[in-house]
């Protein structure tokens, strides 16, 4: 049963990953990555990492992918694919593509040698036993216990990093004009009509600003 | 299934992500392929965690997810800023930092 589930999930993982790399439209790449992430969470469940699987589905396949979908819809990524690049750029594109595939293949062979050719005997086993009970392996209680005792500093640093990234994202993506225009904006009273391009919701739906 | 199967899948996913980072031109897709590489590493970490029956690998995977979320936030913010400046959304044309 677990072998069948593994092969179904692994097929989903690899198909999704291939789709991300090969599909021409950035939107389809994002959707393919969602398939990949959900299949990957099934693999995590098979590895007894229940909390990591839940976080993968909720945070990655939920929140981060919604962010991607919005940005792709906003930017409207141009159609760009391996095949089109091959046709458009002629011999240079084809050479680059071949070089990329060769580098990827070499990396794959190297990784497989490094991972599977090790002398670790445990790699052929099904993993260490885990104790059933209230504090079993991989549950939220187990992860929370580890995060708040042994890895407390890591946890705090990660939370600080998230705060910095949130502030940085807001600063990077905010709407800005030139410096003089911003100073002009600062002196404008709130009652006056806004200049065009200030990002009101009316502009977003295409209505002209009075 | 033995742990080796999971490690093989993780190696395949990592290599696919690396190929995507090298060959694609749209920075959005390059970010997606970076996610693929991080996910391959995560799968290996969780597999090793299962192999030793130790939770450290799972904590490591969670921290990798946090860093990936930060990277997505900053990367997408940069892409939106590039788009607002009407610069081309193409990693081959954005070479101002090249010196």
CATH class of the domain at 1-83 in chain A: Mainly Alpha
General form of chain B: elongated
Q: Biggest protein-protein interface?
A: A-B, 87 and 71 residues
According to CATH, the fold-level topology of chain B is: Helix Hairpins
CATH architecture of the domain at 1-83 in chain A: Up-down Bundle
CATH superfamily of the domain at 1-83 in chain A: NADH-ubiquinone/plastoquinone oxidoreductase chain 6, subunit NuoJ
End-to-end C-alpha gap of chain B:
50 Å
- CATH fold topology of the domain at 1-83 in chain A: Four Helix Bundle (Hemerythrin (Met), subunit A)
Instruction: Report the biggest beta sheet of chain A as strand number plus sense, adding barrel if it closes.
Output: none
Class from helix and strand fractions of chain A: mainly alpha
Task: Please give the share of residues in helix of chain B.
Answer: over 70%
Tell me the strand percentage band of chain B. under 5%
The low-confidence parts of chain A are: 179-184
Number of helices of chain A: 9
Series of H and E elements of chain A = HHHHHHHHH
Q: Could you name the ranges of chain B where pLDDT drops below 50 across 5 or more consecutive residues?
A: none
* β-strand number of chain A: 0
Provide a short characterization of the protein structure.
The complex is a heterodimer of chains A (210) and B (99). With 210 residues, chain A is mainly alpha-helical.
In words, what does this structure look like?
The complex is a heterodimer of chains A (210) and B (99). By secondary structure, chain A is mainly α. Among the domains of chain A are: 1-83, NADH-ubiquinone/plastoquinone oxidoreductase chain 6, subunit NuoJ (Four Helix Bundle (Hemerythrin (Met), subunit A)), CATH 1.20.120; 136-176. Chain A is built from nine helices and no strands. The longest helix of chain A has 26 residues, at 50-75. The radius of gyration of chain A is 24 Å and the shape is extended. Chain B has a single domain (3-92), classed as Helix Hairpins. Chain B starts with a helix and ends in a 15-residue tail after the last helix. With 99 residues, chain B is an all-alpha fold. Chain B contains three helices and no strands. The relative contact order of chain B is 0.14. Chain B has helices at residues 3-23, 27-52, 56-84. Classes of the chains: A mainly alpha (210), B mainly alpha (99). At the A-B interface, helix 1, helix 2, helix 3, helix 5 and helix 6 of A face helix 1, helix 2 and helix 3 of B.
């Amino acid at each position: 049963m677990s072998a069948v589930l593994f092969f179904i999930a692994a097929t989903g993982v690899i198909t999704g990953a291939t789709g991300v790399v090969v599909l021409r439209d950035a939107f389809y790449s994002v959707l393919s990555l969602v398939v990949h992430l959900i299949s990957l969470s099934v693999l995590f469940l098979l590895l007894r990492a229940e909390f990591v699987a839940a976080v993968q589905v909720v945070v990655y396949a939920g929140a981060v992918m919604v962010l991607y979908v919005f940005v792709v819809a906003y930017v409207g990524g141009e159609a760009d694919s391996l095949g089109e690049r091959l046709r458009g750029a002629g011999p240079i594109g084809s050479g680059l593509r071949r070089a990329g595939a060769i580098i990827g293949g070499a990396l794959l062979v190297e990784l497989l040698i490094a991972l599977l050719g090790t002398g670790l005997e445990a790699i052929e086993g099904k993993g260490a036993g885990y104790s059933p009970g209230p504090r079993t392996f991989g549950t939220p209680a187990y992860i929370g216990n580890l995060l708040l005792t042994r890895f407390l500093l890591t946890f705090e640093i990660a939370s600080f990093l998230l705060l910095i990234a949130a502030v940085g994202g807001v600063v990077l993506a905010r709407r800005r004009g030139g410096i003089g225009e911003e100073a002009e904006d600062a002196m404008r009273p709130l009652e006056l009509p806004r200049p065009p391009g200030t990002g009101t919701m009316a502009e977003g739906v295409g209505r002209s600003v009075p | 299934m033995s742990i080796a199967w999971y490690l093989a899948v993780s190696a395949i996913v990592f290599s696919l992500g690396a190929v995507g980072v090298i060959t694609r031109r749209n920075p959005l897709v390059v970010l997606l392929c970076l996610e693929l590489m991080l996910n391959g590493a995560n799968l290996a970490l969780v597999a090793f965690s299962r192999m030793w029956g130790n939770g450290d690998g799972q904590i490591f995977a969670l921290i990798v997810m946090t860093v990936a979320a930060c990277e997505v936030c900053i990367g997408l913010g940069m892409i939106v800023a590039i788009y607002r400046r009407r610069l081309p959304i193409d990693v081959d044309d954005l070479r101002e930092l090249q010196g």
